[in-house]
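TICKET #2291
ISSUE: user wants both folds in one file
ATTACHMENT 1:
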Amino acid sequence: MTATFKALSVLLSYPTDDHKAAVGEIRKIIASEGILSSGAVASIQPLLDDMEALDLYELQESFVLLFDRSRTLSLNLFEHVHGESRDRGPAMVDLLETYRDGGFDLVSSELPDHLPILLEFLSNRPIDEAKEMLEDAGHIMAALAERLHRRTSDYAAVLAALAEFAGVEASSEMVKELLTVKDDDPEDLEALDDVWKEAEVTFGPDPNAGCPVSRDLLASMDIPVSQPAAASNE
């Protein structure tokens, strides 16, 4: 098991008190496991500092402003390559089948391509397989890192660390192509309304399951978890 991917899944999930309590353990995991470079580990520290020090409401507000109100910062990976095209549905089904073949059952209202869920799955796969899957999405993560950097967000370090692990450079042509899309304005409420009017697609059995959380990691820290599980491994 690769606990680093679980830790990064937590960092990219909607902040909760459980997450704040887990920061110390996350520090130890990403520093000791050796999956990320020392530079990547160092760059993530400011985000961990904020998660420890800032008020939970402030953390949640910042998260929503970035990832829920900015489509160009969506953590649903296929949003950036398929958008609303017909290719998105089959790609989603293929990914869901990959999860099931790996003994990983999605029990969240989040879509299969939601990055924290993908990281949860990869934490229980061989490291070579994890690297290969992240390579496929590396240009998306590099583009997200750049967009977050432009907004001076500490979350940029997490996406940059994943892109670095995948071996994808921000200067690649695929990254540049993604960055040609104009950034969303999170204060444009009319545009936000248009997004919410679109049909909701649910791949999990529970539409009220909420945001995905790395349950196994939090449980291993003896931290009580109040939200329902995002996924399970058989």
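ATTACHMENT 2:
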Amino acid sequence: MLPMANLPPFIQRELEKLNELISPLLKKASKYGFWSLPLILISVFNLVTILFFIPDRQNMVLTIILYAVLGAFGMAMSKEAKHHRKEIQKISVDYVISRIEKSDIASASLKRKYTTMVKESPVLAINHFVQFLEAENKENS
């Protein structure tokens, strides 16, 4: 995403409104993603160590189960983080499209152009939104 300090105030305001919508989900996704990787790595490392380098695995059944559950929990957290990231993208795209369509300043053809661009490439929605806001500002001047 673009650095906020280099953006004009009218763009910063719009991005701050969007950030207010997605920040709770962003915090959850970050937290889940942050904890999932260490859990998975610890689990895999210890399972590989136990299964391939320790000859007496008979006494380690509980430990193996514990690390397997730990790894599964890490993978579940990773999946949940991915789900939250998709939800963030959906909320962002919906906000951008509704803001473009609500514009009283922009022409209908400009709104159509940017709405189509956002729908075709939702990953670049914020970049298209910034371009739209700049074009809208030019039309307003």
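RESOLUTION: both attachments delivered.
EXTRA DETAIL ON ATTACHMENT 2: The chain has one domain: 9-140.
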